[in-house]
C-alpha cells in the first residue's frame, strides 16, 4: 500500500487466480463476457469504501511454459469521516486554543506558559495517536505534513510569549541609589511646573515611563499575533485542502 497522501489515499487490491500445473495448452481461464464478477452490495469495510472493480487477464510466461491466469482488481477509497472528526478537527481546535494566550495580559507568565506547553504536549499526543495504526514508512504522509504544520504553529505561539517577556523586561528590578544630580533636575522641573500653573497654561501630558513603553510594545506584539497567527493558519489550511480536494 502507498500511504503518501494518507488519509486521502485510494488503494488497489489485486486478486489473481492462476493454474500451477497446467499450461495454456491444457487449460485456459476466461472471464464470463456478460457478468464477469458479482460483488455483494452489503459488503462494508470499516475504513475503506469499495469504489469499483475490474477484471483482467494476467497469463504468466515462465521458462516451463505459459500458465493461464485471471485477475480482479478492487479499487478501495479510504473513508475520510473518521479522520476528519478524530484527527483534523481536534488538531485545529488545539491550535486555536494556543492562541488564547494572546489575550492574556503579558504579566501572567504562569498562565501563558502553561497554556502553550499544554497545547504542545496535547498535539504531540494527538500526532502519536494518529500514527499508532499505521506501519512505519520512510516517507512523509499528508497527515504528517498537516500535523507538523500545526505543531509549528503551537510552538511559535509559545515562542511569541518568550519574545513578549523579553520586550516586557524585568520591572521588579531593585531601584538604583539616589543621585544628587537627579534631585537638581527634579527641583528645576518643579519650578517649571509652578510657573506653568501661575501662567494658567494647560497641564503637560505625563511622559510614559520606561516600563510603560516596554509594556506597550509587548501589547502591540500580542495584537499583531491575534491577527497574524489565524491569518497564516487559515491560508495554510486552505492550501492543504485545495491540494487534496480532488481526492475527497
From TrEMBL:
Keywords: Cell membrane, Ion channel, Ion transport, Membrane, Signal, Transmembrane, Transmembrane helix, Transport. It is found in: Cell membrane; Membrane. Residues 87-169 form the Neurotransmitter-gated ion-channel transmembrane domain. It is a multi-pass membrane protein. The keyword Signal applies. It comes from the Eukaryota. Residues 1-79 form the Neurotransmitter-gated ion-channel ligand-binding domain. This is Neurotransmitter-gated ion-channel transmembrane domain-containing protein.
